[in-house]
# Entry
Amino acid sequence: MEKCLQLYSLMRECLRKIEWLAPLLARFTIGVVFIESGWGKLHNLEKVIDFFQSLGIPAAQYQAPFVAGVELVAGTLILVGLATRLASIPLIGTMIVAIITAKKDDISGWTDLFGISEFLYVVLLIWILLAGPGKASIDEQIKKRTI
# Structure
């Protein structure tokens, strides 16, 4: 039993040294997803406008470039870890709207949410919003210099 406790203690200490990696990986994943999505929307605006109109989104000709810009800018901010918590908020909203409009036919019960990527993005974004960007971020460097 003593060996198990020592091993557990050693494992905890090793993991503590790399705990900065979890928020970095989450930020990198979310950042890349939204940068690519925003970039793709900006370069296919007509298709995106048509898609938004088919979903019944009002003022699709304005919403499409707005959403594309939000995804591109907020995704970039999250990727580099600058204004991370603030940048996560509009992306959470965007994903909730996507779930309600584009994914509504895929959801017959609340457990269906776990099968769609947009819900996973919301969960990761909420985690980033609450936990912060982590040590490997510009936000952390700014915090160190201002405290």
